[in-house]
Fold:
Amino acid sequence: MTTVIDPKNITDFNRTDSQLEMFWLFCITVAGKNSDTTSKLLSSMFYGEDSPFDTLRDLGEDGIYKMLVANHTGQYNRISKAFTQSLTLDLRSCNLDDLLSIHGVGPKTARFFLLHTREDSKHAVLDTHILKWMKNHGLYFAPDTTPQNKQTYIKYENMFYLLVQHYFPGLSLAQADLLIWTQQSGRLNEQS
Structure:
């Protein structure tokens, strides 16, 4: 099955409304999971749908929960609440605070969405891959896991910007993020 989201080519600043909705649902669902598996799962759940959000609206909160259980997504309560609350978002104009107001969405998920959908986005997705890369490039004191405290996150986000400017001066933050993720996750040498 062809998937709607290609984890190896995640950045797209020209998504259709439907693609933007699917990518946001991917961002919510992929937290702590394999990206390829999550992409296939969402593609099968919303196969042929013009608007994933319209499908979710038609299902209602109980129906969303049942769909998640039937498709074995895990984290049913978190994801069903996040999907339901997301239906009021304007994904073209929402900001970081709008995304963080969604149940179960943390700083990494919100920034991941913005970084890979907005060309002018200046955010860092401080996942374990990025943090490990930061440690390997001089920030030995970087945390092992994503900081949840807002000030701490911003502190390391700013350090990441400086490292990217130094090591990847010709790349955007989105390009650097994807390159580091593919290197750190071992996907750089995988065949497409």
Summary: The chain is about 55% helix and 0% strand. Residues 52-70 form the longest helix (19 residues). The CA atoms of residues 21 and 189 lie 30 Å apart. The two ends are 15 Å apart (CA to CA).
